[in-house]
Amino acid sequence: MSLSGSFARGVLSASVIALLALLLTFGTACSLIQSISPETHLSDQVHQLNDEARWSRIDLAAMRCDPRYRPAFLASHRRWGSAIRVADADITNLTMGRDGEASSLVTYQWVDERSMELFATTVRQRWTGNGEIGFHLVGEDIVAGETRLYEEVDGGPRLLDETAVAAGDEAALTSGEELPAGEAPREVVSRSEGAPITSTPVSRRDSQGVALR
Hints:
Blueprint: H1 3-35, H2 38-54, H3 58-62, H4 70-76, E1 84-96, E2 101-112, E3 117-130, E4 134-145, E5 158-159, H5 162-168, E6 203-205, E7 211-212
């Protein structure tokens, strides 16, 4: 047996072993992915989208939207990172529905950079998908707080009235925590026909972020 022949067979054997190891690793990874529940997939998408949106990475967040909703998402969030600075995004509820439908409830604390006022807006995000292909955002509804968080665009976030919230989303609008004694429940923003939308800011702050009296 020549030295070159032995070397070639050794290289071939090493290549076969490496290929088998790669296939085994890939198969294990696929099994792990398939074992992840749809609830976990939904939670990952919700947290990643809201983290990206909070830090003004709207371009990345938009990739988690359904293609049909993506243009409205980009247009309605165009001021985030400039005129609007999101200070916090608190995800308080995740709900799995039927046929791949799901929803998340998020409360944004945000600052209007022009007035340095701090506002709060609670939003219901609507998702569709399943554990295999993941979930995509298909719409957003404002359920409480200041509505000026978003630009008004066709197909963008819409304001839910009290009737719709009470009838269809009562369970999704709570995080399971009871309100402290004497504290009133959060008011849902609504408006009568032709009346302007108004809300009261949480607080007023100066350019250094210090609350003003």
